[in-house]
Write a structure and sequence with these properties.
The structure is a homodimer of 294-residue chains. With 294 residues, chain A is an alpha/beta fold. The first copy, chain A, contains 11 helices and 11 strands. Chain A binds a DNA duplex (30 and 30 nucleotides) through helix 3.
DNA sequence: AAGCTGCATAAACCACCTTTATGCCATACA
DNA sequence: TGTATGGCATAAAGGTGGTTTATGCAGCTT
């Protein structure tokens, strides 16, 4: 047995205010409208809910049975509605990250997050210098374990391998060995000294080949640009696997050397402060994206 | 922040059924009406509550916040509504009593009970022979403590006194003493031998006067009739105080002898079986009526 | 490609909910 | 006693919002 839902609010207002007139004022209605609604509800249920007197209304025993459940239930609903509205007024979810990650990983995938969560407004702030996230913000930055707060988690471990464009390989000849690679033109990602990622120097050291940077070789300070240059056949780059995976898949780039991995460095997610549903949704989605990429 | 109450039902139905179309069928509406209501609610709140897909809807995180409170709250309301309806369908409150009590005490007061409890339908069954109440019934009958169930309670202890009409006294002369009363014409309430109330025999025995019934004196088997006869000046009656109080107040009858009381006999209320709000309301009202009569 | 199902949107319409007006009743006060 | 005030009920009028019908788009399955 259900009751016209509007009537529930009227019943509650009458109980709360004690007269039909005052209930109407609270609901933005006139007394006859309240009288009509209350009457309809009582007729529908087949029982009087309030006794009317010149001094106002008081509930009948049947009315009290209903009000005992109705008042707390409506209060609960109102609390939840306030919570929903407060959520909708949350500031946008701000993601801090570097240009490379933003351009090569996040932006191509963001449409998927937005279609799953259209209610979450997302702001992406890309920068050269990654600062730590403030409470409420989400930072996705390249770092090593120990550099971050304990609650940060590793999204993408570091995996690199030398890559070149097919046209460059055709002109250059085979680059089958680290020694052959040492003779090729290398593209460098210029970064501050405290940068934690693999560089060519580090790569050759791992393969016991001495190779220093030649003058005239291209150096770029944004990984996005490094990828553009290698695609254009300007040399061999150290490919950051999760970021260049689409180019490998399409054949625009081919591996020209073995892969190197590190488990304690990579892109980490830190998200200080309270975790709103938006924060949780983003974390969940990020994990899904990595998992589905295999 | 409140929401159109009709929308709450729509939101709940969409969550329960998983598609707008099926929710509409359950609510007796079409899909576009559901779509419109849901849209209005979402616009009002400023946040999407459901994600729509070809396969149906699933709640957003904000939707889940609301549903966590809404589903149990609406369930509580529905339970209370069902309870109210069940109450309204209770059989009438059946009161069993004798003709004297019904006619002289209960009926004159019943309007007051009905105005306080218009939702309670009352049935009065008066009879010469009072049977015990069945579960759900309420019996108000003359009895002595020990004859009834332990839950029965004494409504009106027995208080009697000789009364006559002023016209009878004017014709007869003063009846100041039990001996003078013995010479008067007495009106008798004829009852079965197991009757427990005061009779004239008992009254005279208490006053050490031998008085037996004279032939030709009027005997009546209903107390209502006894009261009519004494009002008509046909003799002196043993007045049952609670029942004749209005006549004493009005002067239609005057006392012509001392009052006798007994505390273990009188009108008792027995009400076996579950005590519905109706039963409780009646008991409460009965106590109030006795208390306000002093 | 065809068929089915789900949701969104626009236009039309009508039922019902609200307002205005009025009357009755009870209470308080001068 | 008469007047004023406040509360509820009822009737009539009207207008608007909620519903239906029609249509189109998208996704999925066979």
């Amino acid at each position: 047995m259900q009751l016209d839902p509007a009537a529930l609010r009227v019943i509650e207002a009458v109980a709360r205010h004690g007269t039909l007139t005052r209930a109407g004022a609270a609901l933005g209605m006139t007394q006859p409208a309240v009288s009509y609604q209350l009457r309809r509800a009582e007729d529908h249920l087949g029982v009087a809910l309030f006794l009317r007197s010149q001094a106002g209304c008081r509930p009948t025993p049947a009315g009290e049975v209903l009000l005992r459940a109705l008042l707390p239930a409506l209060a609960q609903i109102d609390v939840a509605l306030a919570e929903v509205v407060a959520l909708s007024r949350q500031p946008a979810l701000r993601i801090l990250t570097d240009f490379g990650f933003a351009g090569l990983w996040l932006m191509p995938r963001l449409a998927r997050f937005r279609s799953q969560h259209p209610e979450i407004e997302v702001q992406i702030t890309a920068a050269q210098e990654n600062r730590a996230a403030r409470p409420g913000e989400v930072a996705i930055r390249f770092a090593r374990a120990g550099d971050l707060d304990a609650s940060a988690w590793l999204l993408l471990p570091e995996r690199v391998l030398p890559v070149a464009a097919p046209a460059y390989l055709a002109a250059q000849g085979p680059l089958d060995t680290p020694a052959a690679l040492a003779s090729a033109t290398l593209l460098h990602l210029d970064a501050p000294p405290e940068a934690r990622w693999f560089t060519w120097t580090g790569w050759f050291a791992e393969h016991a080949v001495a190779r220093s940077r030649r003058s005239g070789e291209l150096g770029l300070n944004t990984y996005d640009f490094v990828v553009q240059a290698v695609l254009a056949g300007q040399g061999v780059a150290l490919g950051w696997l999760p970021l260049i995976a689409p180019h490998l898949d399409s054949g625009a780039l081919v591996p020209v050397g073995p892969e190197l991995r590190r488990q304690d460095t990579g892109y980490w997610v830190e998200s200080p402060g309270p975790q709103t549903p938006g924060h949780k949704a983003l974390a969940h989605w990020l994990r899904d994206e990595v998992a589905s990429a295999g």
